[in-house]
């Protein structure tokens, strides 16, 4: 297929690379991130603007940080909708507001296009390994058309429901991940403060019911103090804002989600917006006046 890809940042670059390696023709446009040299070397074409890209593409994929970024790319000056051809499918793989997603889909439909929301989970590691979890919303026909592309970028692909359902699933995912990070951070901090090696506690817990990917990956990050971003706190904050604002609209209380958001905010106040989200532990360490450390380190 001839695929227009908008957003070749930390996640988008390897995702686009997998599509290119599978034989698809890539059309790119300068957005927030520089166009990746390796994609150009593989034969990608750089378009002058998003409407120029849309005028040539069969499928347009967006992988952008937040709702306003997607809205600008689609409907701003020289946006995708201005060049959209009838029958083109717009696939938004960003993590954005479910309500805005339904509005965007309606506007794309009015211009003659199809729309699938397909946010992902798995971070930079999953993007590079083509092992992303992809949660999809859209019509059966639109999903069937783009499902082969998802198979190139991910391993766990689920058609959740109509437009917006993918974004709802992603918000649910981010609630679970944030609360797991908080739980792992509290547990390892407890162990360290009690004078027990948190590395050995983590190893013990990995063999039991408390085992999780967060304990495996982010627990090790907390112990090793490696907080270079795979997924930035600022982006996880954005996702929890979506959760909490949607919960207010639904008349729903999410008390532990709010607690996790406050811990992320404490990290941001200390200059940590660009830390990996596992660095939430540093907010708890500040409250405890104790940092996690291996015994004897």
Question: What would you say this structure looks like, in words?
Answer:
With 297 residues, this protein is of the alpha/beta class. The chain has 2 domains: 2-162, Rossmann fold, CATH 3.40.50; 169-288, N-(1-d-carboxylethyl)-l-norvaline Dehydrogenase, domain 2 (Orthogonal Bundle). Helices cover 54% and strands 14% of the residues. The chain contains 14 helices and 9 strands. The protein has helices at residues 12-21, 37-41, 50-56, 67-75, 80-83, 98-110, 123-129, 140-153, 165-193, 198-205, 213-224, 233-250, 255-269, 281-288, and strands at 2-6, 25-29, 45-47, 59-62, 89-92, 114-117, 120-121, 132-137, 154-161. A 6-stranded parallel β-sheet has the order 3-2-1-4-5-6, sandwiched between helices. It has a 3-stranded mixed β-sheet with strand order 7-8-9. The longest helix has 29 residues, at 165-193. It is elongated and about 65 Å long. The N and C termini lie far apart (54 Å). The model has no long low-confidence stretch (mean pLDDT 95).
């Amino acid at each position: 297929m001839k695929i227009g890809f908008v957003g070749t940042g930390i996640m988008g670059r390897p995702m686009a690379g997998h599509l290119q390696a599978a034989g698809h023709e890539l059309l790119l446009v300068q957005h927030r991130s520089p166009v990746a040299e390796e994609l150009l070397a593989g034969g990608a074409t750089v378009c002058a603007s998003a409407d120029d890209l849309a005028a040539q593409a069969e499928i347009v994929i967006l992988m952008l940080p937040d709702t306003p970024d997607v809205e600008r790319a689609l409907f701003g000056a020289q946006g995708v909708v201005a060049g959209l051809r009838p029958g083109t499918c717009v696939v938004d793989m960003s993590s954005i507001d479910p309500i805005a997603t339904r509005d965007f889909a309606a506007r794309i439909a009015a211009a003659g296009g199809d729309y699938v929301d397909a946010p992902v989970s798995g971070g930079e590691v999953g993007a590079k390994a083509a092992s992303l979890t992809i949660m999809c919303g859209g019509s059966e026909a639109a999903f069937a058309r783009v499902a082969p592309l998802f198979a190139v970028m991910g391993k766990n692909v689920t058609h959740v429901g109509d437009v917006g359902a993918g974004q709802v699933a992603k918000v649910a995912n981010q609630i679970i991940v944030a609360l797991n990070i908080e739980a792992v951070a509290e547990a390892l901090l407890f162990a360290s403060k009690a004078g027990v090696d948190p590395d050995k506690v983590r190893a013990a817990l990995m063999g039991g019911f408390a085992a999780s990917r967060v304990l495996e990956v982010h627990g090790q990050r907390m112990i090793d103090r490696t907080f270079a971003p795979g997924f930035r706190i600022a982006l996880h904050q954005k996702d929890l804002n979506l959760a909490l604002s949607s919960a207010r609209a639904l008349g729903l209380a999410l008390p532990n989600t709010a607690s996790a958001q406050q811990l992320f905010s404490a990290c941001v106040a200390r200059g940590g917006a660009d830390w990996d989200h596992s660095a939430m532990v540093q907010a708890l360490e500040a409250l405890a006046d104790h940092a996690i450390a291996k015994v004897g380190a």
